[in-house]
């Protein structure tokens, strides 16, 4: 028997999911994260999951890991001290940046501009120049380069980034600087922009390369340490790390290009949701991942997540491919408050966190949170996880009462309902960002809800968006780890061209795509993926000539040589996307800016779990009756044990469905049907469709 392991490290908990590849049976473990050394929590969780399965750790063939090491290094300002080598005259490229100030009117007055990841005193200029066409304008002065590198060595830099003007067109000078740095700065890791991001736009290429250098030492140490500990524990399977775009790379590749890991955690949830939605038969869906502090949302079409070309973490925005995830500060721990000036109820983005946490945790927290409001309304029973967790309803009521007093509402329940309504609207706004604002109607999609708090709010978000069914996966609290274990190896090769369509032919474009595919596939071959199991997906960033931004468009390589294929197909696809996004098209020449080829390895052969079949009656799973507050009145709701539900059962609302890591609320007028794959499908009760 062989097992694959999904590992997701969050800020509070580390989730482990062990999957029997033959049967699809899963074993899970949840342990406290260990920020000082994440590998400690990971190893502890793996041991517990193997104990639950009754298997030795030596039977684990593959470990797939979503990590926040790179993310935390940026957010906490604990990256390496980075030296930056630029072209003569470009020393202040990071300080000039882009002319954009976040915030509303006059935001620039109070906005504290973040410090660049490479300080000005650690930035040096070297003589040498490459033209936009790739020609050498000024030869590289190697003596000057050596002198500048010695200066950086004296200043004690811990990592080096090299970003020279127009190096995307010709990397010759950058590569020579890297060679010289190996002599002058032995042992210092080097990030070269023509390898990290071979695309135009000087600032974006430089900040991305510097970010890569800043987190590289920490990620490399973590990966090496985890691999060593896995070997010592008897795990001989290979270690792969999840990228921000939802694909996997080997541990070695991840350590060399850690800037591609900045959204590793949220990407795991989206890929896990794709697996669950595929089993339930819904290829188009929105994802809704609600945790304790924030909520992440994304849109998926044809089981393929929409991918963006930028990754944002805190104040840092880099040019790295990632799943198009939007985040709002709305979670179970979000604090409700009433500002004195407006007397209007607000929820978040401040959070009670894990310590002291919501008042209901009885751990010293006193401020009212979303979790407290759910307890007051009865949506969260006070006895959870078979009695392992007990919530203090009196403390929750006392906290929420402060909101009732401040707003003049007639009851604590009304205040709690207001808190829930506001946080739901906040999350609805995020879902609109990935759907309506991008030209997609959410009513054409299902909604996959997960995370510890997602299933509690999922039914309400379904009503707001009109996205049905609402799909609640099995073990929604560990879905990110499931996503890590059910995705595939991936690599990407990119080239910036900047060519008008009249300057190109179908043949010349195909030649470039073929070359890029060869490079991407070579990386997978080095990681042991057979050539006959690889497939390549192509895309191009297009714009109208004269525009300052691009739109990514998929390239159908199978129809490339046919009638209406090639450049003609790209032109039509770009116009359609431009119409959808901006409601107009231009009678202007099209221009191709960047092309990319993404090589995919095979999807893992993990058997889908199948529930024992039952009839429509969920009676055997009914454990108690419980009064909850809905729409201004108390109603009787059944409490069901999800572990006892069978395929075909239909749970009528109002109902509460409990499991070890989450609680699902089914509102009145809705039903939750149990799909054979184990997911709950929530719909309005008057909707009759096949499961």
UniProtKB/TrEMBL annotation:
Any one GO molecular function term: 5-oxoprolinase (ATP-hydrolyzing) activity
Hydantoinase A/oxoprolinase domain ranges (all copies): 205-491
Biological process according to GO: glutathione metabolic process
Superkingdom as given in the UniProt entry: Bacteria
Domain Acetophenone carboxylase-like C-terminal: 506-671
Domain Hydantoinase/oxoprolinase N-terminal: residue ranges: 4-184
Any matching Pfam family: Hydantoinase_A
Region (Disordered): 599-620
Protein name listed in UniProt: 5-oxoprolinase
Any one cellular-component term (Gene Ontology): cytosol
């Amino acid at each position: 028997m062989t097992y694959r392991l999904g590992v997701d490290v969050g800020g509070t908990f580390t989730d482990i999911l062990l999957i029997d590849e033959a049967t699809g049976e899963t074993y899970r473990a949840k342990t406290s994260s260990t920020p000082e050394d994440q590998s400690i929590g990971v190893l502890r969780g793996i041991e517990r999951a193997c104990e639950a399965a009754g298997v030795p750790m030596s039977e684990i063939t593959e470990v797939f890991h979503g990590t926040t090491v790179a993310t935390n290094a940026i957010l906490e300002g604990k990256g390496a001290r980075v030296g930056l080598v630029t072209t003569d005259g470009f020393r202040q490229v990071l300080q000039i940046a882009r002319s954009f100030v976040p915030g509303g009117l006059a935001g620039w007055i109070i906005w504290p501009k973040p410090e660049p990841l490479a300080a000005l005193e650690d930035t040096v200029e070297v003589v040498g120049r490459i033209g936009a066409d790739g020609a050498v304008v000024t030869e590289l002065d190697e003596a000057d380069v050596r002198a500048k590198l010695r200066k950086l060595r004296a200043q004690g830099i811990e990592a080096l980034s090299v970003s020279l003007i127009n190096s995307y067109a010709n990397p010759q000078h950058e590569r020579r600087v890297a060679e010289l740095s190996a002599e002058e700065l032995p042992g210092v890791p080097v990030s070269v922009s023509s390898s990290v991001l071979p695309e135009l736009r000087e600032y974006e290429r430089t900040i991305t390369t510097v970010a890569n250098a800043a987190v590289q030492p920490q990620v490399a140490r973590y990966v090496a340490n985890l691999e060593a500990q896995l070997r010592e524990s008897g795990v001989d399977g290979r270690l792969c790390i999840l990228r921000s775009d939802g694909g996997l790379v080997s541990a070695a590749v991840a350590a060399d290009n850690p800037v591609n890991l900045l959204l590793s955690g949220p990407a795991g949830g989206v890929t896990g949701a794709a697996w669950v939605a595929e089993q339930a038969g819904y290829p188009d869906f929105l994802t809704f991942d609600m945790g304790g502090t924030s909520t992440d949302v994304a849109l998926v079409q044809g089981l393929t997540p929409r991918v963006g070309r930028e990754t944002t973490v805190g104040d840092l925005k880099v040019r790295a491919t990632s799943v198009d995830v939007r985040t709002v500060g709305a979670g179970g721990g979000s604090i409700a408050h009433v500002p004195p000036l407006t007397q209007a109820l607000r929820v978040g983005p401040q959070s009670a966190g894990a310590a002291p946490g919501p008042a209901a945790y009885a751990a010293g927290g006193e401020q009212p949170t979303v979790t407290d409001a759910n307890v007051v309304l009865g949506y969260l029973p006070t006895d959870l996880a078979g009695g392992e967790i007990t919530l203090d309803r009196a403390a929750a009521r006392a906290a929420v009462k402060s909101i009732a007093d401040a707003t003049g509402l007639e009851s604590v329940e009304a205040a709690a309902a207001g808190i829930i309504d506001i946080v739901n609207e906040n999350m609805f706004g995020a879902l609109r960002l990935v759907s309506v604002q991008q030209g997609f109607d959410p009513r054409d999609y299902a909604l996959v809800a997960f995370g510890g708090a997602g299933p509690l709010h999922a039914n309400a978000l379904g009503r707001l968006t009109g996205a049905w069914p609402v799909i609640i996966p099995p073990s929604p609290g560990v879905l990110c780890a499931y996503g890590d274990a059910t995705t595939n190896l991936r690599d990407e090769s990119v080239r910036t061209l900047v060519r008008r369509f009249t300057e190109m032919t179908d043949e010349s474009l195909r030649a470039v795509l073929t070359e890029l595919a060869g490079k991407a596939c070579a990386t997978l071959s080095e990681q042991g993926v057979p050539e006959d199991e690889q497939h390549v997906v192509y895309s191009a960033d297009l714009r109208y000539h004269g525009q300052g931004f691009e739109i990514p468009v998929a390239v159908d390589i199978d129809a490339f040589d046919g009638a209406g294929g090639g450049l003609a197909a790209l032109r039509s696809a770009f116009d359609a996307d431009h119409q959808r996004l901006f409601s107009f098209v231009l009678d202007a020449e099209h221009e191709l800016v960047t092309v990319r080829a993404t090589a995919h390895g095979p999807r893992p052969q993990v058997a889908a779990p199948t529930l024992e079949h039952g009839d429509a009656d969920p009676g055997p799973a009914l454990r108690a009756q419980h009064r909850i507050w809905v729409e201004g009145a108390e109603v009787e709701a059944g409490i069901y044990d999800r572990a006892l539900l069978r395929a075909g059962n239909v749970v009528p609302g109002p109902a509460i469905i409990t499991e070890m890591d989450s609680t699902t609320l089914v509102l009145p007028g809705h039903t939750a049907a149990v799909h054979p794959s184990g997911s709950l499908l929530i719909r309005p009760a008057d909707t009759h469709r096949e499961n």
